[in-house]
Each structure stands twice: as structure tokens, then as C-alpha cells.
Amino acid sequence: xxxxxxxKSLRQSLGLTQAQMIKGSKITITHYSKMxxxxxxxxxxxxxxxxxxxxxxxxxFFKKYFPTKYDMIIQEISQExxxxxxxxxxxxxxxxxxxxxxxKHISTELKDRADLIINILNSGDDTASIKQAMHDFFNxxxxxxxxxxxxxxxxxxxxxxxxxxxxxIMMLIRKYKKLNEQSLTRxxxxxxxxxxxxxILRKYFKxxxxx
Length: 211
Prior knowledge:
There is one protein chain. The chain is an all-alpha fold. It contains twelve helices and no strands. It starts with a helix and ends in a 6-residue tail after the last helix. The model has no long low-confidence stretch (mean pLDDT 86).
């Protein structure tokens, strides 16, 4: 895949036209169209600007469209961890956690997610994993623009910390009023925050309507 093809794929995943993709820049539609087709050279500054305007980090862009072998291994572990959760397989989740902890370079988010999933599968009695996850969460600068931080927040929602979590969720709601303008990855992560929050409210507080 070329950079131009990756830009086109990103644009389509965002549901944007070419004009919308470059909105806020001085790049012309004609020039951008040729960028996607590989007919015009793509300057680094232009690429970074386009991604910034659309709320996509250059690191995430390359990780998604040009993953290394290591990235693919991590993605597989992440998917297996999610599947263990859906299958209520705490033994599998623990095995994956050991695999995760053996890798010194793996992300904090994945370590926290493994702990939180095991916590949930064990009926959520371990408060230490929640405290650790929230500690890591507050280490993210600009957390509302970080998919990993949003995921940690989503997985940390419990009935005992709703007073602390609710203001953070309200901040996300105010920031992302136009959810359809975000990448599909961020849409899914934000939606998961809402689903988990509503689940706790309805399960423990019998609240049927929040907004």
C-alpha cells in the first residue's frame, strides 16, 4: 500500500469527501486527488497537517496502514484478549496476561486491559487493578485525544467509582458531539465508553434514561 492509498482508505473510513478531507488546509482538491492516486508527491508537512486536521496521529496512521510484524502480533494478542472476555474465559485471559507481562515494550493500555478483563471475569472484586488503571489513565496528556486512554477509561467504569468517572464521560460527550466526524476506531471506543457507563447505571441504579 502506498501513502496515497492509505490516505484514501483513511478518508473513506471517516466517511469524508476529498474536499472535507483537506478542509482547513491550503491543499487544492485537484492536488489532493492526485496525491491519493500517487500522481503527486506527498510532502511530510502536508501529510502531518491533513492527519492533524482529521484528529489522527501520524503514529496511529502508520501503525494502522503499515503495521510491522510486531504490531500484528500485538493486534492478535489484543483480539484474543477481547475474545477471552466475550467467552468468559478467565484462564485464557490469565495466560494472555502472562504473555503480555513478558514483553517489556508492550503498551500500558494492553496491560491494564488484561487486568481489568480478569477483574470483570472474577466479579470485579479486585480494586487494585482499577486503581492502577486509573493511575495510568491520568498519566496520559491530552487523554481525550488518545484512543488508549479512552479505552482504559471505558474498561475502568464500576459502580464504586461513578462519582469520579461521570465528569470525565461528560467531558467526552461535550468534545465529541459530532461522533460521525471521528475515525471508526475512535467511534467504537467512544461508543464502548457509553455502553459500559449505561450498563452500570441500569444494572445497579435502575436508571433507564440518562440524557
